[in-house]
Amino acid sequence: MNIYRQYFFWGSSTIILTFVFTYLIQALVYYKIAEKAGLDNKWIAFIPILQFVIFFHVIDRSALYILFGLISFIPIVGPLVLFVLGIYWKVMFYRTFGLDNLLIILAVVIPFVDFIVELYIAFSDSVQYQDTNRFQVYK
């Protein structure tokens, strides 16, 4: 019985560490994207739900758009509406950085490609923020 506990501990620890590592990478990506977009309060990227504030500010939308997540509680229709809105917002997000249409389609359709594209946006010098928004800080 003791050996089963040991395997369960190491297996669950690995899963937790993987989630923490992935979260930290995503937070760093949103921090760098907020930096490129000239947003204030970049530290928000490290707070789980507030990461969406940076996302919505990049596409020049209010942070109150986070409340659209409550639509998902409406049976059947809610998750579908939120799915369509999510795709629309992601396309707007990628267009503010001037990405190619094929890359946008791949990123929206394949979730892992989305993660790679966001890494590319955050750390590539060739990708620049090509829009203005009311949340930018001018120095």
UniProtKB/TrEMBL annotation:
Signal sequence extent: none
Pfam family, one: DUF5684
Key word Transmembrane present: yes
Keywords of this entry: Membrane, Transmembrane, Transmembrane helix
Spans traversing the lipid bilayer: 6-31, 43-59, 65-89, 101-123
Protein name per its UniProtKB record: DUF5684 domain-containing protein
